[in-house]
Known about the structure:
three-stranded parallel sheet; 12 strands
Amino acid sequence: xxxxxxxxxxxxxxxxxxxxxxxxxxxxxxxxxxxxxxxxxxxxxxxxxxxxxxxxxxxxxxxxxxxxxxxxxxxxxxxxxxxxxxxxxxxxxxxxxxxxxxxxxxxxxxxxxxxxxxxxxxxxxxxxxxxxxxxxxxxxxxxxxxxxxxxxxxxxxxxxxxxxxxxxxxxxxxxxxxxxxxxxxxxxxxxxxxxxxxxxxxxxxxxxxxxxxxxxxxxxxxxxxxxxxxxxxxxxxxxxxxxxxxxxxxxxxxxxxxxxxxxxxxxxxxxxxxxxxxxxxxxxxxxxxxxxxxxxxxxxxxxxxxxxxxxxxxxxxxxxxxxxxxxxxxxxxxxxxxxxxxxxxxxxxxxxxxxxxxxxxxxxxxxxxxx
Length: 371
Ligand SMILES: *Cc1c(COP(=O)(O)O)cnc(C)c1O
């Protein structure tokens, strides 16, 4: 049996409604910022429950533009998670600022109790990352944000519809950034991103920044970027967005199915602690094993046709491309521990129970043989 990681062929197996939308677009020629972009923004704002949503070119830009709008730039520092995808750091870097990391909790997300220690005179913003689709402890982030007057821009790229104490991720701070990348829970056919905010002035600035700073055809208010959400991608998004809640529920059901099976495995397989009042949306399903078993089990799963992965085997702060940040081995022990213990299994909405049973069976088989 093969258990693929990418489910995109299944997701877009019946693309006729999308093709129809693209045919309509051809008639109008509104290839940049067509009415379909505004339609998507309206639907997205409604989905998340914010006043505004602004479509941009990528999830990276969905983080970069709010920082820029807040005036963060050269010489400034932004506090974020040591355990994240490189795009978080890339967004901070692109505006000339420097990422300062804090370590993770056993739930793989930024440990909000460590933020205060990372604050310096140069700190200008906090960027919590709801990694894997699990919320950061936002009460603590809000406390620090208020105490030091530091704005929050949430990296919600992996966490569409994720909730912390009943409140949707992306709505806690000045703005929240989401990715529409093909591998994210709400995915289009290329790069895309969207920013949510409840602040009218932030919305206005973001609309300027994503379109060269153009106030109208002839007047430039600020220096901006070319970072518009492509109209074709908005058409794909408009087709998919009504399915977002169903996609989320299916991922949660799949995760619960894995959880129930793995909890029976005598502690050989360990799961991150369950937190009350948090609704996880399972962009990634991660479990842990002893360090000595991780690579052999991963290899066994791969040899069995299961596209298991590790998010991530090398922590960002130990990457060559981030050496200039000045961190040294051991600075983020929990992030390091994850890199040695974790395995990611497919958990997407198109995964079948047979495929899940096969994955579970192969993990069991590995441990039976290892004994
Ligand atoms: C996907 C992702 C981003 C943004 O990535 P893009 O490829 O630019 O859409 C940012 N942060 C995290 C944590 C991500 O997973």
